[in-house]
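Q: Given only this backbone (426 positions), what sequence would you predict?
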């Protein structure tokens, strides 16, 4: 695709993995220290269901200020259909462009089909686009068009064959549909001599299309299915609250004890995530353990609480760990973080599930907080912790293996060392 211009704007079209490609490219650009904006000219999955936060219905000033080196910002407009968002208007995108180093746009829809031929009004390419990448999934390869192709009627027009519905999707048919469906349009009515155009064959590592297509070809090799992770939510509730002037975990906030606020949220997360294998509460306090049992959680007595937080971590891991079970992940939640949103915990779990990382954490403006997730490959390191040293020590050793989930508000990361009225006076 050649060298990138000063402000590249990538538009992804086609089917079969566009959103994954959009986010992968955005993360790679952010990894280079760039300020990256993600949006759509049609619709894209809601950031919540992508395990990310987003700026929805935000004004231009807010979107501009959100641009930070090394960060991906997803911006768009709310829709009644809660699992999708619309994109920024082209005029608004042009206004905010000056605050970003790169923009990645999902510019087409395919209703989850692995292959697509566009209609007359598709794709929706903004004028500022510098690169167009056509994505097609080769999971559709050697399947009947009727099963795998979106806009089947457009494929029929191009192929002009009576029995086209049962035609197998061969390399020759793929090339013809791409040339006639996308490339003639993108080099004709939607052409811009300065734009670069390429094709990404997703889930593909064996077929050769270079000689069949008139544009560069990129292969995203077929990957092994990612490991399905099983999350154990472990709530740490054993602190002595020495600076608080009493047991802060039973301090009433929002008309219930602080610890119960977190229990309510963990119960909600358990009901909304198929990946949660169990919830465990580690506490030296009988009242808290009894409450945990009422929620159906595993309650673990921490008789070694005087040894510091490391004792709570070890007891939690040992309580939930099962031999010969792969994919265990331990998500530690602290009981004195009442403003943490249940939706943020869920986004952390869902995003970490899709990531290839071994550690996950909630973050606000580069400040890493709780909850923190550790894959079982870090179990032994966690079990070696001593004293009042928590899992952050393990996290800092492996920063290259950390997935970060942005909190929606700064207060979500706040824990209480002092009573709220004393905090306000400080």
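A: Predicted residues:
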């Amino acid at each position: 695709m050649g060298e990138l211009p000063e402000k590249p704007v990538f538009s992804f079209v086609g089917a079969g993995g566009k959103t994954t490609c959009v986010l992968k490219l955005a993360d790679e650009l952010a990894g280079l220290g760039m300020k990256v904006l993600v949006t759509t000219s049609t619709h894209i999955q809601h950031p919540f269901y992508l395990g990310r936060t987003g700026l929805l219905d935000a004004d231009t000033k807010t979107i501009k200020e959100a641009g930070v080196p090394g960060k991906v910002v997803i911006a768009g407009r709310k829709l009644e259909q809660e699992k999708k968002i619309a994109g920024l208007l082209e005029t608004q995108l042009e206004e905010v462009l000056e605050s970003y180093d790169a923009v990645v746009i999902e510019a087409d829809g395919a209703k989850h089909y692995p292959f697509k031929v566009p209609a007359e009004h598709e794709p929706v390419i903004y004028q500022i686009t510098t690169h167009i990448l056509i994505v097609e999934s080769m999971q559709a390869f050697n399947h009947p068009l009727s099963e795998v192709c979106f806009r089947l009627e457009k494929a029929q027009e191009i192929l002009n064959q009576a029995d086209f519905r049962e035609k197998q999707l061969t390399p020759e048919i793929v090339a013809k549909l791409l040339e006639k469906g996308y490339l003639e349009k993108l080099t004709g009515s939607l052409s811009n001599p300065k734009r670069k155009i390429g094709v990404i064959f997703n889930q593909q590592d064996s077929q050769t299309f270079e000689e069949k297509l008139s544009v560069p070809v990129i292969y995203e090799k077929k990957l092994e299915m990612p490991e399905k992770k099983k999350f154990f939510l472990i709530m740490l509730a054993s602190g002595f609250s020495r600076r608080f002037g009493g047991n802060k975990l039973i301090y009433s906030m929002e008309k219930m004890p602080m610890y119960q606020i977190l229990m309510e949220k963990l119960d909600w997360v358990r009901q909304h995530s198929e990946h949660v294998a169990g919830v465990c509460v580690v506490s030296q306090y009988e009242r808290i353990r009894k409450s945990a049992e009422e929620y159906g959680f595993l309650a673990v007595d921490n008789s070694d609480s005087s040894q510091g937080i490391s004792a709570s971590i070890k007891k939690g891991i040992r309580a939930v760990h099962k031999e010969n079970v792969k994919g265990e992940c331990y998500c530690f939640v602290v009981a004195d973080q009442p403003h943490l949103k249940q939706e943020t915990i869920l986004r952390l779990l869902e995003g970490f599930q899709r990531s290839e990382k071994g550690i996950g954490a909630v973050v606000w403006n580069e400040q890493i907080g709780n909850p923190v997730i550790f894959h079982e490959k870090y179990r032994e390191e966690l079990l070696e912790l001593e004293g009042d040293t928590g899992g952050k020590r393990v996290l800092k050793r492996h920063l290259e293996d950390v997935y970060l989930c942005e909190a929606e508000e700064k207060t979500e990361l706040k824990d209480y060392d002092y009573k709220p009225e004393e905090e306000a006076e400080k």
